[in-house]
Amino acid sequence: MQEVRVRFAPSPTGSLHIGGAKLVMYDVLFAHGQARREGKRGTFVLRIEDTDQKRFVEGTVENLMSELRWLGLEWDEGPDVGGPCGPYVQSERTHHYKEAAEQLIASGHAYRCFCSPERLKAVREDLQKRGLPPGYDRHCRNLSPDQVQAKLDAGESHVVRFRMPREGETIVPDLLRGDITYENEKLEDLVILKSDGFPTYHLAVVVDDHEMQITHVTRGPEWIPTAPLHVRLYDALGWEMPIFAHMPLILAPTGGKLSKRHGGASLTEFREGGYLPEALLNYLALLGWSLDGETEIFTMDTLLEHFTLERVSSSPATFDRDKLDWMNQYWINHLLTVDDLATRCLPFLIDAGTIEDGPADATHPRYDDVETASALLKDRVRLLTEAPDLMSYFLQDTLPDYDAALLIPKKADAATALRALEAVASVVSDVDLADEEATEARFRALADELGLKAGQLFMPIRVAATGRTQSPGLFETLRAIGQDRVESRVAQAIDKLKATNQV
RNA sequence: GCCCCCAUAGUCUAGCGGCCCAGGACGUCACCCUUUCAAGGUGAAGAUCGCGGGUUCGAAUCCCGCUGGGGGUACCA
Fold first, then answer.
1. Which sequence positions of A are flagged as catalytic?
2. What residue is closest to B6 (Cα–C1')?
């Protein structure tokens, strides 16, 4: 049985899109999961397709690799880790493509085209005007060897085009969709080698996939229309064709491709937006694949166990932020340990200035406090970016200013709130807030003494202690804030109420 | 325009000829729990399986057409 080899081949033109991240994950799952279960040793290759110098963006390769590692997706061969089929950067492999192009010219499968970009544009416009499909008119297809030599001698710049058969059909077998049939007559003589000596995607991908012994070509569906050229190229070069699997596209909620306009599509934005790599992976896995339609929660481990290419859907999926958010919260609340959550909140807390700068790990001087807050808030943090706000009253000594009206409980007035808080102030120093049960018993009794419902007493205390009407359970919250800060915050609340002149 | 892909609730999906007048999840709504908000629990609404023809004793499932959505149509990937 043949070894499974797949590859992800991005062009370094910008930040990695989540569609790309999903492709990488499926590659890793297929190579390391399904392949292994089938008794093969799968390899995942990372290759950089930088054949278009004009679109190259500095730093994107490094960014891409660091974002993939953030997700926990590793490659077996690639530009940084090397491997037996290197180099893994196409701009360093140009001689391979030139050789292949020369071979194709020699065998009559390709020809040199001397048409200028201006002429091509004019041809396209003319065809379009006449209501015909725009394209190349095969002007140089039948140049005689003498004509070609003459132009070459004259130093005319040229490209190399593939000589597509004019009749018959080309079949592209796709693992997810079956055979896709094209009439050769409708196919163009596409450029495979540009005038600058660089190959186009079509030649480069076929040459590299062959030389890197790729067994399964996984890629986005935008490549389906040019796949027949790739099939023809394999045939003309006399190489065995890999298995094609064109993955489904991720659509924006508004339809069309997902982009930055739709609230962040790059991996960087998700990382900075407070998403866990585990949750993102879990969500992405389900966007186009399912185990049984029932199971929703997957770790990379269980995915490796169950993922198969055969169960990948061929229809596109719409990206749903709400479900991703739910997934993220679920992971925080149910799969992460308190310790883990605290560690992951640290960078966000430091960044927001909620706690002082320091190492983003358990050695940070405030780590214990963050852990305490994490324990109480883990069931209500959706995104890690919410941590600074949600944890502020636990981690900071002073409360930001809040509206005194919040201190007044439902169906009560300012006088009642003041009376309640003054009563609390008089007993709180005798209550051990570290003992939640005793605290609760004492305050419930206090409510009775004051003729208030428990909630009518608890709300003013909550607001006094936290500056807001929503918090975890009151007594665990008081315990975590601590005796001193609670006492001073109650005193401040009393002053605040008095200052309203309503009492 | 031409070529290609796709088509089950708002969204992700299960279903691969009878078990389905369609199951799960997100979202929505209600109730329970309750000191608030969450979390959790229970339940509800929501899909004539895009439409129309076939094939079959029987179709969400197979075939054809249409419609809709998407992709491609570059010396970009």
1. 260
2. A315
